Structure prediction request, 483 residues.
Amino acid sequence: MTWEIVLRVALVAVAFLTLPLLVGQTEHKVMAHMQARLGPMYAGAFHGWAQLIADGVKFAQKEDLTPREADGPVFRLAPAVALLPYLLVLLVIPLGPGDLVGQPLDVGLFFVLAIVGVGVVAVLMAAWASANKYALIGGLRAAAQLLGYELPFVLAAASVAMAAGSLSLPQIVASWRPWWLLWQLPAMLVFFVAGLAEIRRPPFDMPIADSELVFGYLTEYTGLRFAFFLLAEYVGIVVISALTAALFLGGWHGPWADSVGWLWMLLKTALVAFVVIWLRVAWPRLREDQLQRLCWLILVPVALAQLILTAAVRVALQ
Amino acid sequence: MTLLDVALAVAGLLAVAGGVAVVSTKQLVRAGLWLVVALGAVAVEFLLLGAEFAAWVQVLIYVGAVVVLLLFAVMLTRAPIGPSPDLDRPLLPALLVGAAAGLGLAGLFAAAFGRLTVPAPGAGTAQKLGTAIFDDWVLPFEVLSVLLLAALVGAIVLSRRESTR
Prediction:
């Protein structure tokens, strides 16, 4: 029993270390080809497949700087606080039918929502402890954005939990039916957009807007600590994509789900991750007021309407 | 003395230590960060006692929203790195009130429930909690909802600009 838990956690850790790199490499290549470039071609000889490994080695070699005016302990702790929540979230996302999940949790969905919210604390820590005005402004923008978008994020997730009548992620996936694609479509769009904002990906990268804030709350970070934040962003893409796939796209459902269900889940996750990358290339950054307006005037009302629709259909079906 | 007892004691100590750090640190923002430690340790206590749902609510609401809002407000107004010398912290009254409240509550609970043994209520699942709220406690729940709504309306009225005509 004990070795099984160890094995599960080890496998999740492996996924935690490889999937973000895969997404990162895909981003390099997809972005490059969308912009009529080649992207990395040299590292590892074949189409630059080892580019991110080379990047990792580069980050490890860089000097680890803490600004003199910074609040040292908080500054050094922030990257770990940013990364840890996503590792925990990966534990409860179901990969396939049955118990093909890191740790089945009775309130898995709620756990995910709670833990993802902790990431804001890391952003505020990094922003304040840097003792840099750009960093502080970036942190404030991030906090305002994350507080706002948490609401539609949670509401959209609540809708699908209501539809399935469960908070357990494996159970939600198990009770998913293809017609939910239509029924839960508004919730899916809201969840995906709010999720993008939660991980601060373009077009929601106002907190690190490089043309006005240098690099926002990451301005003062170098070397491995900066790499930690970058890794957190890419694990964030994996988490949001996997959650969207599991909650709204049916996770492991598909032909021959009993044997290759995990493949379907990975495929759907990869598809959503591709859209995340695509949006970065295709959309300009939202301005701060547009960003808040989108959240409060569009996403929140749509999410609330979806909740009513979900409840009505649930009651009608009973 | 089981492993669970030890874990509970450690989490409790952590919560109290975090709380003490909140009120004793000279650095404003760090006080907010210590609050994360204290509230997080309380969530761990919930988790250890089997109230899984309450634990994650604690994390979502207190760590993810309340503390963040607090830090946000502090950083918006003033957030110096390093100690703030002008923090208003009367040591003696604070010690008196804190000790009296803490010891009083501890004594009260020990006297009231010290010899009582209750059967373990089982894991606090979301389903159980939902049934309890919308079954036995539906009236208090509705009253609280109305209270919250009133507070929301009040907040909006107070924060609205006057010259909107």
